[in-house]
Amino acid sequence: MQSMKNSAIAILSVASLVVGAGIGYLSTRNSGPDPRYIPTEVREISPDYKFIDPLIGVETDQSLYPEYSALDAQMNAYIAQAKADGTANSISIYFRDEKSGHWTGVNENETYEPSSMLKVAVMIAYLRASSNQASMQNTTTQDILAKKLYYPGTDISGLHYPPSHILPPGYYSAQDLINAMIIDSDNSAATTLLDSVQDEFQNVYDDFRLPPTPGAQVGDYMTAKSYSLIFRSLYNAAYLSRRLSDQSLELLAQSDFTKGLVAGVPAGTVVAHKFGEHTYALADGTPISHELHDCGIVYYPSKPYLLCVMTKGSDFSNLEKVISGISNLVYTSVDSSQAKTAGK
Prior knowledge:
The chain has helices at residues 2-31, 69-84, 119-137, 141-145, 174-183, 187-196, 198-207, 224-235, 242-252, 316-343, and strands at residues 40-43, 55-59, 90-97, 103-106, 111-112, 148-151, 170-173, 222-223, 271-281, 287-298, 305-313. It is α+β, with helices and mostly antiparallel strands. It has 2 domains: 2-32; 55-343, Beta-lactamase (3-Layer(aba) Sandwich), CATH 3.40.710.10. The strands form 4 sheets. The protein has a 5-stranded antiparallel sheet with strand order 4-3-11-10-9, with helices on both faces. Strand 9 and strand 10 (287-298) form a beta hairpin. The relative contact order is 0.14. The model is unreliable at 1-30 (pLDDT under 50).
């Protein structure tokens, strides 16, 4: 009897679970899927493929990741203080754990002028075009990158952070110009390379769903969140080949700009990043406002993360401090979280 009683209880329990699941299913079916759990996919725009639809990145809702509530509070407090004391007028932050894909941000959809940060897209376009050309010519990408291009000389006009290495006019390999463009943020190198791959650059721009530029009108148009997809694609080797993605990040880790993200992490920490600067000025050249940004991947041991900080203000040195301060805040938060995890 006891055995039959236990069996009956078990059957009733299972029935309850089935009914409950059915009610839950009908409820979900009637109300529709939770929009937070529907990922937004970014896929390559290309008519060249018949059987594949390459995925570049996936985005989910920020509210899915409450583990960042403490970090959110710290970042918001930092931004409020920086604005209150006049250090910066506007600050945006996008943070993403590159292992889990979980992310958070503050003002991550505010727009800015990306300036030199788009040099990473120029590099991607040139490498992609070179790879395609190598395939058609049955040669290697490195052979294509060895091609000589005429470089008109370093242009430092209007720059607060000029290249640390000045190249004289002459012919240089495409790889040398890519190095100068990324490591030294050389504008002339970027222009020379872009002239050769305008169409491919537009393809990259479209594939990454980057916001349209304001054209002849001067204005801010790029967000920290939208720009982050460029670095995410390199880390995941989702657009270039694995070898070229790895080489690109290795080159970005050699950037000579050390007053932003790099200044906020312990010495020796590898940071693959790109900075950008922009100054809005009157017709007579009088500065109105400055923008300084730094975005990239911080290779924290076993937990690399992407951090993009974009700022506006009246003084570049203050904006440097804001970016390095946020970088330090985020690194400390990640470090503390990892220490707690290790102690469990």
